[in-house]
Design brief:
heterodimer; A: mainly beta; Ubiquitin-like (UB roll); B: alpha+beta; seven-stranded mixed sheet; 30 helices; 17 strands; about 15% strand
Chain lengths: ~60, ~725
């Protein structure tokens, strides 16, 4: 399992940040991702593997219309 | 057109005139304000005191202070002593930093019977200040329609009768601009404020503030939309306000340190140029960029806020909106705004109404219009949204209230609470665009069922209960209003913090005080009541500040600077907050920091709460929310998200939903959610320094320095 914004989500081999966000339906254009406290730049999302038991924060930067 | 203008020119009759020498602007202030009483046609200057600058700053602060002094505890919206106060603020009118041309309008509202404030773009506020006036108070009532003209070039204010043979706001703005301009180029020096016939016939009248678009050769309109200010405007028999100022320059605001403002402006303009296309695309789509993500995250209001998404939402997505905007160029409602979120559709051919067959310019649509008029009413038709948007603006009725009240009426219609006989034949089912369009015409023109609809959700509920035998409790649950104002367009059932953000807002449920949905519901950054309360302290106070200064909040958080994610609190966009502190200091010559910035807002925010108390509102019962805003009212709603709600019952409430009927589950969920909302209010009140009944404590007011005797007197009565 991995934890994404406090929610437990199934982990699978080969899970990248990009796949994880897609699985969560996080489509927002401005998301800051931290995996175990480390920021992962958007350009590395497709190649950054999320290991089992990781804690992921995907903070959507929007404070309103 | 020439003939119309000549007739207008010939009809001009000056009722009162006041000549003045425009004061030089000094560090963002002219030092004078203009008071006009239409009952006796008096025009008087007032001096801005140091106390006003220190405590109320400008903009909404000046508006509240003047209104406080003008009215009594029992003043109603249509009493002559009620005022409409327009003020920008000390930063308002600078051209070096984006989003610096806002005006704030304050009055007693015909919807809430309490204090209303609404912010608006366009050129009026800055031109008013540069013409020598930090604020304009309009009091009294005229006998016949009048135009107030402030000529900042000649130093003259007049109250005039001018024959204007239309009530359509887009034509009033166009014709008055033509009348007052000496050339095509001169039109950009003029701004008109008008309402429209919707202000005569509904309680949701708006004010349209114009700015002249030289490329389109058209007077564009921006709206002070919330709370029925246009209704007050028309009750006073104001046909229009006009200002002319021809000497705008980057130095018009005469700041203490212009270079510091330029530095901040250059920095953020570079950010916008570099990142906007990959972030929020404000320059391409404006606020309609939110349509797609709101639907994706189950936040787009659908069918009177029952749901947060719909398969047909793709028909009114951000990209569809983008495809309809014409000229495809950055488009700003004030000079120098690089974020340029204004959008328009040129040559849109109308299919209905008094301008049927004409090709018109539609300003917008923005997110709120598209969501309110469209998805919330189950209408996923971009042509309808454009037509409804145009007519709401030119009739002068609020698109947000219109969307929410039509959605409410549609739900009542589908539940059999009202029928075709009651609506004069309109089949107001969700999705019926033709019926909704006809209802908008009826509201704007004061005809048929539109006369009831235009009263707003609170009064419609009363009529449906008293005249049609509807269950008042059900209407209370599904009628999306609080304090008498209709909710703006976010479905926030899964964000407790935003539920507070809406219903605790001083003027009613508008999202400009706080928008915490993603922080709370998606990011899970506010897991405890204390964290939610902290957010409901900080953000409303911070966001109030924009309205004191003449600023738009979009450049704060709709462009994210490089390195923001590395900061301690990315959601606050600390670099941009510092920009605002720097700009305030650079304009005024003062030396505030981020903490003092919040205190500036907190003074005005608490003063507005006390003002509500003075008028008989502003306590806990007025912060109650309709249950539709908190959770699923009906079994149909529960079943639509049954997996989510069942999981919540099990994991959060500690009830096993297995074997329970849907009605039992709805009841259990309601008890849980209403309990949490009550606790939230307790914790927020405590954080804000208020009593458990929502009254600011005396020591809080003393700490803020607003313990004036008349303020204390009001508060003591409520302790």
């Amino acid at each position: 399992m991995v934890e994404v914004n406090g929610i437990s989500v199934n982990w699978e081999e080969g899970l990248t940040v990009e796949k994880l966000l897609k699985q969560m339906n996080y489509t927002f254009p401005k998301i800051v991702v931290r995996v175990n406290g480390n920021i992962v730049d958007k350009k590395y999302w497709a190649e950054y593997y999320v290991t089992d038991q990781s804690v992921v924060q995907a903070h959507h930067l929007i404070a309103g219309g | 057109m020439d003939n119309i203008i000549e007739k207008m020119r010939a009809s001009r009759r000056v009722l009162a005139e006041y000549s003045y020498k425009p004061a030089l602007i000094e560090k963002g202030y002219s030092g004078q304000t203009l008071h006009i009483n239409l009952s006796d046609n008096t025009i008087k200057p007032k001096t801005v005191t140091q106390q006003m600058k220190d405590i109320f700053i400008g903009g909404k602060g000046f508006g509240l202070w003047y209104l406080w002094n003008a009215v009594k505890a029992d003043t109603k919206w249509n009493d002559p002593e009620n005022e409409i106060v327009i003020s920008s603020g000390p930063i308002g009118g600078i051209t070096q930093y984006p989003g610096s041309g806002k005006s704030l309008v304050v009055t007693i509202s015909p919807l809430t019977n309490s204090v209303m404030d609404s912010n608006v773009g366009g050129y009026f506020g800055p031109y008013l200040k540069f013409s020598g006036w930090d604020a304009l108070e309009i009091q009294g009532k005229a006998d016949k329609d009048v135009v107030v003209f402030i000529d900042g070039d000649k130093g003259k204010v007049t109250i005039e009768e001018i024959t204007i043979d239309t009530a359509a706001s887009h034509l009033v703005s166009k014709q008055l601009t033509e009348l007052l301009a000496e050339s095509e180029k001169d039109k950009k020096n003029i701004s008109i404020v008008s309402s429209g016939c919707g202000g005569d016939h509904t309680r949701i009248g708006i004010l349209n503030f114009s700015f002249y678009d030289l490329r389109r050769k058209a007077a564009r309109l921006k709206q002070a939309g919330r709370g029925g200010i246009g209704t007050v405007f028309r009750d006073k028999k104001v046909a229009a306000l006009a200002v002319k100022y021809s000497s705008l320059s980057g130095r018009s605001n005469n700041p203490a340190d212009p270079e510091a403002i330029t530095r901040a402006g250059v920095k953020i303009t570079r950010e916008i140029n570099k990142f906007d296309d990959e972030q929020f695309r404000m320059r391409q789509i404006g606020t309609a960029n939110l349509m797609t993500p709101m639907n994706d995250y189950d936040l787009l209001p659908v069918h009177n806020f029952k749901y947060g998404s719909h398969p047909d939402a793709v028909k009114i997505s951000s990209e569809v909106m983008r495809s309809r905007f014409t000229q495809n160029m950055p488009d700003a409602c004030w000079v120098g705004c690089a974020l340029s979120c204004c959008k328009a559709v040129d040559d849109f051919e109308l299919k209905t109404g008094p301008f049927k067959g004409e090709k018109v310019l539609v300003d917008g649509p923005e997110y709120e219009n598209a969501a309110g008029l469209g998805s919330n009413c189950g209408i996923f038709d971009v042509d309808y949204i454009l037509e409804a948007n145009f007519y709401c603006d030119t009739y002068g009725i609020d698109t947000i209230s219109t969307g929410t009240l039509i959605a409410f009426i549609m739900e009542c219609y589908e539940n059999g609470i009202i029928n075709k006989e009651n609506t004069g034949g309109l089949e107001l089912n969700f999705g019926n665009a033709d019926a909704a369009m006809e209802l908008i015409h009826q509201m704007g023109q004061g005809r048929g069922f539109g006369k009831i609809a235009g009263l707003g959700v609170r009064r419609i509920k009363k009529i449906f209960a008293e005249d049609y035998g509807a269950d008042p409790a059900f209407l209370q649950d599904i009628g999306m209003e609080n304090k008498g104002l209709e909710y703006s367009q976010y479905q926030a059932k899964e964000s407790l913090a935003q539920q507070g953000g809406f219903a605790l807002a001083n003027k009613g449920p508008q999202h400009d005080e706080a928008w915490l949905i993603f922080m709370d519901m998606i990011n899970n950054q506010l897991p405890t009541f204390e964290k939610k309360a902290e957010a409901l302290y900080y953000f409303p106070m911070f966001r109030t500040w924009f309205g004191l200064q003449g600023l738009c909040k979009l450049p704060w958080n709709d462009i994210i600077p490089e390195g923001n994610s590395q900061t301690d609190s990315p959601e606050k966009i600390p670099e941009h907050v510092q920009n605002y502190v720097d700009i305030f200091n650079a304009v005024t010559g003062k030396n505030i920091d981020k903490a003092e910035m919040i205190r500036q807002s907190e003074r005005v925010y608490n003063f507005q709460r006390v003002f509500n108390l003075r008028l008989g509102f502003g306590i806990r019962e007025h912060d109650a929310a309709p249950y539709r805003a908190l959770g699923p009212v009906t079994e149909e709603e529960y079943e639509s998200r049954a997996e989510r709600y069942d999981r919540q019952l099990k994991e959060d409430v500690g009830i096993d939903p297995a074997g329970m009927s849907t009605a039992e589950k709805v009841k259990a969920m309601r008890k849980y959610r209403e309990g949490r909302y009550k606790t939230l209010i307790d914790v927020v009140y405590e954080r804000r320094g208020w009593t458990s009944n929502g009254v600011p404590k005396l020591e809080s007011l003393q700490k803020l320095g607003i313990d004036f005797p008349e303020v204390i007197e009001v508060v003591k009565k409520n302790l």
